[in-house]
Amino acid sequence: MVTKKQNTSIPKTSLQNPKSAPKQFIDRNWKSLKKNDPEVFGAISGEEQRERKGIELIPSENYTYAEVLAANGSIFTNKYSEGYPGKRYYGGQEYTDCIETIAIERAKKVFRCEHANVQALSGSPMNQAVYLAFLKPGDTILGMDLSHGGHLTHGAVVSHMGALFNFVRYKTDPENSGQIDFDALMKTAKRTKPKIVLCGYTSYPRDYRYEDFKRVADAVGAITMADISHIGGLVATGVMSNPFDSGFDIVTTTTHKSLRGPRGALIMCKSQYAGRIDKSVFPGLQGGPHMQTIAAIAVTLGKALQPQFRDYAVQILKNAKVLAETLMKNGAKLITNGTDNHMMVIDTVKSFNLDGKQAEAILDAVSITTNKQIIPDDPNPPLKPSGIRLGTPAATTRGMKEPEMVKIGNWISRTLAGTQDEKLLRATKKEVEKLCLKFPVPGLILS
Question: Is 109 a catalytic residue?
C-alpha cells in the first residue's frame, strides 16, 4: 500500500535522441529475433498476418496500442520489485516506484475509487486475491452461474476457488431477456448468508443493477464485489454503470479487453480495505510484480483519460446494437434477445442447427474469429456447447462502424446457414479479407 505521496515525475535519462531511439531499439531487437530464432519470429509474423486479414469478434480480445506494446516489451522486464512504492525488498527502485505510482493514481482517477492495486498478474489471481483477503475456507460467496454468464473464478467446480469456498449461484431468466430476479436473490442470500455478494460476467449481454446487488448484500452484512473485466473500458468512460456509484466495496477488472491494455489486472476498493487487499496480493498470493506490464497499464490508463477514448466506448456499444439487430433480422436466436453491452451470444443449435464448436470452425474458415460458448443450462458439454460468443471492441478499434457491422452480421448469418456451399465460403472469405485490409490493425511491427 502506498503510505506516502510518491514522486511521479520521470527522472532524466542519458538518451541523446529520445525520439528516434525507441524505433532503433525495436528494429534492432526484431532483427536479432529473426536471425537467432526464426521459428518464433515466423510464428509472431504469422499471427500478425492472421490478425490483419481477419475480423476479431471474440469479446474478450482487442488490439492494444503501439505504446502499450513498447512498454510491455521494455527493459522493466529485467527488474524485480517485490513490495510496493516506497516499501520494496530490493534496491534500484527509483523508476519502478515512479511507474507504479503513476499507474495507481491514474486507476483511481479513471474509476473514481479510493484505492487501487495494480500488481495482480491477471484476472484469475485478481479475484483469488480478493477472496483470500476476506474469507476462510468454506465461507460462502454468492455469484453468477457459469452457464448463465459467470466466469470460472466465480465458483466453477473445476477451479481451485470453487473447491476452497462455498459458491452459491444465481441464474438469469432466459424467457425474460436474461433479467435477474432480485426477490429470489434476496431469499437465497438470507438462506445461505454469503460473506461476499459478487456480480460480474463473461458472457452476459446485459448491464447490472448494482444498487439491487448492494441492497441484497446490505441485508445480510456481505461485502459487495463487482468483476467488470469485460466492460472495464465502458465503465471507465461512463457509458456503462460504475459499481462505486452504487456504494460497492470492491471492483476488479482486467486491463485488456475493452480497456485495450496489456494482460494485467486492477483491484480497486474503498480505502478501509486497502491494507487487506495489498497484503493479499503481496506477499499473500504473488511475489515480484511484472513491472513491464504495470508500465503498460499506466500507458493504458493514460489513454483511457483522453476524450477520444469515450468516443471509442460509445462506438463499441453502437456497433454491438447494430450487429445484434442484423443477426436477429437474419433469424439468429440471441441469448437475452439482444445486448446492453459489447457482446452477444448466439444459440447456434436453434438458429442454424450447428453446435458452437462447428460454428466457430466454420467462421474461422472465412476469417471471422469467434468462440464457442455455453448457453444458460446448456445440455451440451463446454467443449461442444450450444452457442458462440462475439463482441465488437476489436473491430471498433480498427475503425469499423455501423455499416461494417451490417456486413459482418450478414456474413455470419449466410456462412452459418450455407456451411455446405464451398463456393459461398470462398467468396465470403475474400470479401472479409478485402474489408479488413481497409482497416489497419494498430501496433503491428512486422506487417
Answer: no
